[in-house]
Amino acid sequence: MANYAGSLLVTGQAKLFGAFQTAELRYRRPATFEAFLKSSNIMFPDFNVLKTRDDRTVEASYTKRTSRALGSARSHNHTGNHGDSAILTPSWATKADVFSMSLKQADKNLYSIQEMFNNELFNTIANFAEGLETASASFLFAGRSGANLSTVEGTYDATDKVFKVTESTNGTRFAQIIKSNMDINKYSGQLDVFCDTVAFNKFVYQMAQGQANSTNLTFQFGGLNFIHCPDLNASFAGLVGAYTKGSAIAVPIGTYGVLPWIPKQNREGVDTSVNKYSTITNPVDGLNYGVHTYETRIDGTSVGGYTQDVSTEFQISVDVAFVQAPLSVSLTTTFQAFSLI
Predict the structure, then answer these.
(1) Backbone torsions φ then ψ of 120, nearest 5 degrees
(2) Is 39 helix (H, G, I), strand (E, B) or coil?
């Protein structure tokens, strides 16, 4: 019940602990968001210094690829084109959660004021875990490439932006086809592969089919890091092709990331007469979040407190900019989507 009304000391009560309590407070670890954070460590090493306020734009320069066919002869008066560069401008969006506490709300309650605060804070952490995971998956899906150079063992659907692989003939080699397809698209090295639930389950099963099995499928999994992203289930099923047999988005590690930021007042710690700016470290993702609090006089009877009361308002926030490595070729991105049909 709201404002801890269900635990008022009007009847004999006990507190639920262990699995009974954790089941109610459960949340899913944000594996996709954590992958974005892990892949971010080579990007914008000084953006926190450059971004001095919420509304200040930060730009990053990069050099562009100039593709040319090789010539067939030497000449004494050869001429060439000049190279070029471009600008990437990350876009930060604020993610915030709020809660309130009355000074007197625990005076006639089974729970102490500290226990109430801990519960509010836990719920905020869980809300960020779920919200940032959804935001990560949405950016991943929306950013999938609109072109694919490969025509081998599959077909590219430009409408759905998906490279389609027939399960009945090549389903057990889906991972191998993803790797060779990315190689044809000129991506080498380690790949993060974000999977819907069906694809993730199939890959886990196939990885267990080793040398002791009649069919060894483990040869194809080197260099692939599989990440279960349940948000992709509805995303792929909602496309024109309604893909439900297993889908994934492969991304070269280091070509994507997320840039977290909070205002300098939070980082430095500032107190005014009624406002306090500070930080808190999120134990799930390890990031520092901005905390803003202020107090106001209230009649707290409607929120579990009492008539002459004080309400403390809390807001915890972080700004995030999801980024992917810029490509100068129209429609292409490093996020290549694959589906079994």
Answers:
(1) -60, -45
(2) coil
Q: How far is CA 302 from its chain centroid?
A: 38
Radius of gyration for the alpha carbons in the chain, expressed in angstroms and rounded:
26
Alpha-helical regions (H) of the chain: 19-24, 31-38, 47-50, 113-142, 167-170, 174-184, 197-207, 231-237, 264-268
**Per-residue pLDDT for 17 more than 70?**
no
> pLDDT at residue 14 above 80?
no
- 């801990």: which residue's tokens? 118
> Which among 3, 26, 255, 259 is positioned nearest to 111, based on CA atoms?
3
| Alpha-carbon span 202 to 216, nearest angstrom | 14
Q: Is 227:32 a contact under the CB 8 Å cutoff?
A: yes
Is 80 exceeded by the pLDDT of residue 50?
no
Residue in 85, 89, 88, 43 with CA at minimum distance from that of residue 64 = 85
For the chain, what's the residue count? 341
Separation between Cα atoms, residue 106 and residue 103, nearest integer Å? 8
Q: Which pLDDT does position 232 carry in this prediction?
A: 98
